[in-house]
Amino acid sequence: MRKGSFDKKKAGERGSRIERQRKQKIEQMLSELPTQCDIGTKINSQGNNDSWRGYKIHFDTADGQIIIAALLTSASVHDSQAAIPLMTLSSQRVDYLYELSDSAYDAQQIDAQSRQLGHIPITALHGRRASKKATALFPVGTMPQLTPAQEERFKGRTMSERMNARLKDEFGGNTLRVRGAKKVMAHLMFGVLALTVDQWLRLSATG
């Protein structure tokens, strides 16, 4: 086999990255996530594609909008690829019950890993899985068959987006002046540290 060719059989035996992550230690999960600078694209609130060159930081956020785990990947890495590493890191640091996710994380392997860790996954339906019946009964981006407690808990799934916006707009996430994944992560974590202190002060003020 020539160098650089793609062996479908061997790739199939290895499985997708999410499938492999379920059998890996956290160190191996993180080592397989790409961290080189590249191009990322996402759909904005107006339905248009936004592209950028660089990296992507992924969060796990607890009640009170406190970030408990974060990791850095290439900008092109899909959010779902960071789900299992994040929940593994978070489980090592705190005890929690629910795993709240938007439709980007709607994958059977992610839900199964969440349950294996003793959590209850609550994930918004992705369009590819939402049947006509489901979308007729439930608004886009919601999850059917939730208990009243789960419905209330599901409302908090946007915390990570709010923290991501604050990190970019208020704590230096949009003004990177360093190169390389390690330096970028160090820069961002200084912002995460400041953001966490700010959230603690807000909570103490309202408590």
Secondary-structure blueprint of this entry?
Blueprint: H1 8-14, H2 17-21, H3 26-32, E1 38-43, E2 49-62, E3 66-74, H4 83-93, E4 98-101, H5 108-116, E5 120-123, H6 132-137, H7 148-154, H8 159-170, H9 181-206
Parallel strand pairs: 4-5
Antiparallel strand pairs: 1-2, 2-3
Helix pairs in contact: 8-9
Report on the architecture of this protein.
This protein has 207 residues and is α+β, with helices and mostly antiparallel strands. The chain has one domain: Nucleotidyltransferase, domain 5. It is 43% helix and 18% strand. It has nine helices and five strands; from the N terminus they run αααβββαβαβαααα. The strands form two sheets. It has a three-stranded antiparallel sheet. The protein has a two-stranded parallel ribbon with strand order 4-5. A hairpin with a 3-residue loop joins strand 2 and strand 3. Helix 8 packs across helix 9. The longest helix is centred in the C-terminal third of the chain and has 26 residues. The chain is globular and about 45 Å long. The N and C termini lie far apart (65 Å). The N terminus is likely disordered.
